[in-house]
Structures are given as C-alpha cells and as structure tokens.
Amino acid sequence: MAVLLAIAAFAAGMAGTLKKDTSELPVYVLGAERMLGGEEIYHPTEFKPFTYPPFFGTVFVPLTWVTGEVAQRIVFYCLNVGLLVLTLWAIRRAILPQLREKAGAREWLVWLLVALVAARHVAAVFQNQSHDLVIVALVALGATAMTLRREVGLGGVVGGLTTGLAAACKATPLLFLPLFLGQLRVVSALAMLVAAVGATLLPDLITPRDDGSLWVTAWYDTLVSKQGLGRPADAGDAWHEWNSLNQNLAGTLYRLSTPVADESDLVFDVSLWNPSREVLRAVTAAGQLLILALLAFAAWPGRSRGLDDKSLGWRRFGEASMVACAMLLLSPMSSKSHFGLLLLPAAWLAVDWLCVRRSWGSAVSLLAAFVLGTLTTKGVLGKGLGNEFLARGAVTWATGALWLGCVGVLSRRSWSGHPSTSGLAGDR
After folding, report:
1. What is the rounded CA–CA span in Å between residue 219 and residue 225?
2. CA–CA separation, 32 vs 288, rounded Å?
3. Predicted local confidence at residue 23, as pLDDT
4. What is residue 413's predicted lDDT score, i.e. its pLDDT?
5. 0.85 exceeded by the pTM?
6. Measured in Å, how far apart are the chain's first and last C-alpha atoms?
C-alpha cells in the first residue's frame, strides 16, 4: 500500500509540474548556458535574473544537455524528488535513535507533526520549480553527520564538507562557520572552508569568464555589495525592498513599517507604523544582531561539557536546526520556496516534545509554526487574504517560532544533567 501511495503521489506531482507554467527553472538553465559560454550571468535588470553564487550555475550545467523544456522539467522534478527522499532519509537517520530510546514512541506521529508544520514549505519548492532542495539536502546531511561520529572523525569532516558546499550554493550556510569556530570544531571548520572555497572557484577553472575576472567577484560586486545590515534586499529588478515573497526579517519589518501610496495586486499597504528610514534600519539591525546573539548564547560551548557522545550528537542536530532558521531569517532574500529547511527544526522539536524532554515550549513552537505557516496559505484562506498574511510576514513569524523553540531548548541548564539525555543520539 505504501508503495502504491508513493507512486500515486509521484505521478500527481509530475502531472502538476507539467501543467503549471514554468517558474524558476529557466532562470537556472539560462544562467548555466551563459556560464558555459563565458558570458555574464548576473543581469539585475532582467525580469528574473540569476542571483546566486557562481557554483550554483555550475550545478545546473548538466540540465543544459537535456533537450527541450518539457524534458528539463521532468528531469528536474525527478531530481527534486530524489533530493527530498535523501533529506527525509537523513533526518530519519538522526531521529530514529531517540524514538528507540522511548518505549511506545510512534514514528508516524513525529512525521505527522513535521508534515503539518513543513509540508506547505516543501510543496512551494515543487510549485516554483525551485532549486532549494539542493540546500536542504546538503544541510540535512551535514546535520545528521554531526550526530554520527566524534568531531575528529568522519562526522566532523562530512558535516563541514556538506555545509561548505551549501555555502557555495547560497552563502547563508556560512553561518555554520562561526558555530564551528566558536565550539573549537576545527575539523568541521577546515572542511567547510575547503569545500566552500573550492566549489566557489570551480567555475573559474572549468568555464572562465570572457573578461578574465572571477565569477565570485562579479556576483559580489553586482548583488552582495549593495546590501547592508538593517536593510531589505534591493538590487535593480532582482530584489525589491517591498516584496511580499521575501520572508526574511528585514523584508517583513520593511513592509510592516512602510505605507504604500500606489497599491496594486503585488504591492499593498500592510504598514503598522511609519518610522523614518534611519529608525527602521536601526530596529531591523537590532533584530538581526539579536538573532546572532541568541544563536551564540544557545550554542555556547560550555553547554556541551559533560555530555556523552550520544547526547552531544543529538544536541548538534538541534544546533544545526537553529542555524537553518537563522539562515532564513537573515538571508538577503528568503522566498517562500526557501523554507523547506524548516523540515529540520520541525523534526527536532517534534522529537524533543514527544520523546526527549516533553518540553511544552517545543509544543507551543510547533503549534505557532502550524498556525502561522500552514493555516495562512492561499489554499486555506483564499488568494486575497493569503497574500495579505504573507505580506504581513506569516512565514517569517512561523520560522521565528521554530527558531525560538530551538533556542529555548538548547539554552536550558538541564542539558548536561537531564536523565532523558543519556544515550540519545545514534551510532558513534
């Protein structure tokens, strides 16, 4: 029965992919085609420009060998399904030992909670034909690797390499680097740097630019250099300050603080106050810095002292889940399809609530993420109200709820002495 349901779901997804108009996929393929020719790939004045680090262009070079748009969509859909399966396998590999430690634990209940919280965000990847499951799979593999071996072993290397490749694709996974350094996880930090730097420079070795400059330099000069602390993403037609699809902290605070005079179907007034640009930037910067400060507080190395290897591994998975939320909240552009990363904190908090600590803080976080992130979709509320909730940052606040849940659990003093933390995380 499970196999038949899986086949039916695969077929239904494929039909939906072929029926829906193309969205993001042509952007990636065009970027890869231009890169192969040594042409400029960063055109912020185009309607849908390529905005990612150069390594992500290289990732899509194989799709340029597939002839025809329909064939490309089919191949890309199958790849995304494979990445989703890999992600779910990695997460399950990390949480199964916790379920086995708890007599009577029901795995289906954990996955039900995960689906209620994160399925909407995963579906957005397929609806938009987005590449975000590449990032999700790499981060999930890295987070799971950190639970499987000691820092000086295979887990530290794999965790660093996978997060480094993710950083070469989308920069924001670089948040793992200060985590590794702050906790003196030197092996992971070095592996991450090797992977990130190597992958970032790879396009210059295999498909160099016609003008002789580095691809990463063009990316930085065209897009990154124009961004700043406390400001929403703004770069030509690539990123606009008022963009309801941008669900990071800066974008949501901007929409809630900026009255709109000329409303349209895409831009409308959801402002709650009207501060000066300077005040808004200060408030936004303070929020961003607070996220970093609480991340450092929750991941403080002293909280890991005294833990056995298994307990430490489970904690590492929680820290990775917390960083995944911070990536989404702090990224210059966090569109709806980027939030498939919420699979990690949803799974970690679900297991924490059901099996590890019975923490009601975890339960409240999951409930808030479900209400704000799932019950506010256009499928539930209708297009008009769904768009308004999105503009008001429904996905932002859902992510914030999961992030606070992770911070709260990881910051508890009882981590080193709670009896339920003994023998929690998997094989070593």
Report:
1. 9
2. 33
3. 79
4. 60
5. yes
6. 34
Is the pLDDT at 416 greater than 70, yes or no?
A: no
SS3 string, the chain, reads CHHHHHHHHHHHHHHHHHHCCCCCHHHHHHHHHHHHCCCCCCCCCCCCCCCCCHHHHHHCHHHHHCCCHHHHHHHHHHHHHHHHHHHHHHHHHHHHHHHHHCCCCCHHHHHHHHHHHHHHHHHHHHHCCCCHHHHHHHHHHHHHHHHHCCCCCHHHHHHHHHHHHHHHHHCHHHHHHHHHHHCCCHHHHHHHHHHHHHHHHHHHHHCCCCCCCCHHHHHHHHCHHHCCCCCCCCECCCECCCCCCCCCHHHHHHHHCCCCCCCCCCCCCCCCCCCCHHHHHHHHHHHHHHHHHHHHHHCCHHHHCCCCHHHHHHHHHHHHHHHHHHHHHHCCCCCHHHHHHHHHHHHHHHHHHHHHCCCHHHHHHHHHHHHHHCCCCHHHHCHHHHHHHHHCCHHHHHHHHHHHHHHHHHCCHHHHCCHHHCCCCCCC
Instruction: For the chain, give the mean pLDDT.
Output: 88
Which residues make Cβ contacts (< 8 Å) with residue 382, sequence separation at least 6? none
What digits encode the pLDDT tens for the residues 190-248?
999 999 999 999 999 999 998 889 999 999 998 888 888 888 888 776 788 899 989 99
Tens-digit pLDDT profile for residues 50-80: 999 999 999 999 999 998 888 899 999 999 9
The amino acid that residue 213 corresponds to is S
Cβ-based neighbours of 145, under 8 Å, separated by 6 or more: 154, 155, 156, 158, 159, 162
pLDDT digits (tens, 9 = 90+) for 85-95: 999 999 999 99
What lies within 8 Å, CB to CB, of 291 at 6+ separation is 249, 326, 329, 330, 403
In one letter, which amino acid is 387?
N
